[in-house]
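sry for the spam today, last one i promise. struct tokens for design, 186 residues
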């Protein structure tokens, strides 16, 4: 059993603070999301934003539109913004975990990791489950790469060099599995 996820990392020529301001404002996610699936977003809970804050979005895949409800799981300005998106559960294991991890390199450049874990339940490493998860992760990857370019554009910045991709089929005993356990306990 593994926990499938994908992370896309790139160097963006903007401050960590400027990038955090964009990614942590869920109302800007329609412009940010490389998938084009996020149509509009509104905060459900009043400011200030923090762990437990909620937002609702309208998604569209092809002709099919559907709502999602998301809950902020990690809010660590200006370094991390992670939310659980899905059918309305406030904590894992149901839904998808999305987020950004920002590591300042200097005052004008930031290493940005955009992560996605789907689903938050373990998946058997045997066909057809492994094939479906691989296909799903590749679909998400195709949408996540443009997100980093959108983020750079929104910050009037650039992505420097190539994007790094990591498929992390985390085992429960791995550091990734430990992070998942911390989120479940939060």
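last one done:
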């Amino acid at each position: 059993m593994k926990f499938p996820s994908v992370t896309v990392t790139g160097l963006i020529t903007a401050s960590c603070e400027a990038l955090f301001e964009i990614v942590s404002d869920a109302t800007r996610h329609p412009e940010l999301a490389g998938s084009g699936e996020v149509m509009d977003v509104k905060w459900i809970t009043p400011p200030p934003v923090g762990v437990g804050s909620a937002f609702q979005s309208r998604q569209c895949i092809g002709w099919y539109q559907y709502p999602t409800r998301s809950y902020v799981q990690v809010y660590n300005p200006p370094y991390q913004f992670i939310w659980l998106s899905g059918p309305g559960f406030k904590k894992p294991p149901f839904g998808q975990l999305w987020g950004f991890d920002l590591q300042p390199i200097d005052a004008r450049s930031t290493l940005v990791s955009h992560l996605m874990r789907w689903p938050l339940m373990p998946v058997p490493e045997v066909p057809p489950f492994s094939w479906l998860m691989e296909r799903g992760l590749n679909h998400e990857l195709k949408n996540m790469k443009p997100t980093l370019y959108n983020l750079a554009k929104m910050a009037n910045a650039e992505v420097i060099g190539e994007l790094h991709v990591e498929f992390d089929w985390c085992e429960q005993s791995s550091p990734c599995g430990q992070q998942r356990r911390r989120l479940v306990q939060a």
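The first strand starts at residue 5 and ends at 12. ok im logging off now
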